[in-house]
């Protein structure tokens, strides 16, 4: 089975298979989506940062620090953080399903994703985020890179036929 890999087709496939844990996904699909997610995250951080700076500067320009309290911008900050959280879930949840299918493609069980998610939550919630940034996140990134670099199993395995095998010279 051969898949097309245009940008819009890739996005349609990605969100169309957001809840599909069966089947296989190849390296090209995995890396294309990973890079797209990183770019979207960077754009979101830039938007968030610029908006917060512009809003804070505009707020204090209008009201002055003596009239307005620092706490009066907190509802907007919390609303933006909530939107940021929803945006991250919208981007990264389908990536979990894609990672499960990628594990199937290399011949491993999708349950290994639960180990990575366990490390993620354990390091974040146990250490309140400090240990997560120094140890947990690099471990997850190493897992993502290794998962993306492993070769697909040639031929069918117990999760199905290979997806869009690319042969050298095509």
In short:
Helices cover 71% and strands 0% of the residues.
Lay out the secondary structure.
Layout: H1 7-16, H2 27-67, H3 74-106, H4 112-127, H5 130-149
Q: Can you describe what's shown?
A:
The chain is an all-alpha fold and 170 residues long. It is built from 5 helices and no strands.
Give the low-confidence spans.
166-170
Instruction: Output mean pLDDT.
Output: 76
Instruction: Report, as a whole number of angstroms, the end-to-end distance.
Output: 15 Å
Broad structural category: mainly alpha
Helical fraction = over 70%
How large is the share of residues in beta strands? under 5%
- What assembly state would you assign to the polypeptide chains in this entry? single chain
**Anisotropy-based shape:** elongated
What is the count of helical runs? Answer: 5
Largest sheet: none
Radius of gyration: 21 Å
List keywords for this structure.
170 residues; 5 helices; mainly alpha
């Amino acid at each position: 089975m051969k898949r097309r890999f245009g940008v819009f087709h890739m996005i349609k496939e990605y969100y169309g298979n957001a809840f599909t844990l069966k089947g296989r996904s190849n390296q090209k699909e995995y890396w294309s989506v990973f890079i797209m997610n990183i770019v979207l995250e960077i754009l979101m951080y830039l938007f968030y940062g610029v908006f917060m700076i512009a809003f804070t500067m505009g707020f204090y320009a209008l009201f002055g620090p003596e009239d307005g309290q620092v706490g009066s911008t907190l509802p907007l900050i919390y609303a933006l953080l909530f939107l940021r959280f929803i945006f991250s879930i919208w981007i990264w949840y389908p990536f979990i399903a894609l990672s499960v299918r990628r594990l199937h493609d290399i011949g491993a069980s999708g349950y290994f994703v639960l180990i990575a998610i366990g490390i993620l939550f354990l390091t974040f919630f146990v250490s309140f985020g400090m240990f997560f940034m120094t140890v947990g996140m690099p471990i997850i990134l190493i897992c993502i890179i290794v998962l993306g670099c492993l070769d697909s199993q040639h031929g069918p395995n117990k999760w199905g036929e290979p997806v869009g095998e690319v042969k050298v010279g095509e």
